[in-house]
Amino acid sequence: MSISYYDFNNLSKESQLELVMAAGKLISETYKNDLKVVLYEVSFFSVEIVYNTINGKVASFSAFQNKTIK
Length: 70
What we know:
The chain is an alpha+beta fold. The protein has helices at 5-9, 13-23; strands spanning 25-32, 35-42, 45-52, 58-65.
């Protein structure tokens, strides 16, 4: 599935999370204190989701446009 960074940002947070879980490619996962930081690749941008490991809820959610080198 291909979606642009801008179209992704226009989705609701719930739809963004669903799309990342369904179509995102896991890039990395790390833990720091009570947080789990997971980085996904979706189309041509990246999404970072930070989970609170104590309650299992999303603590923060950010999308980053990947830079291309020409």
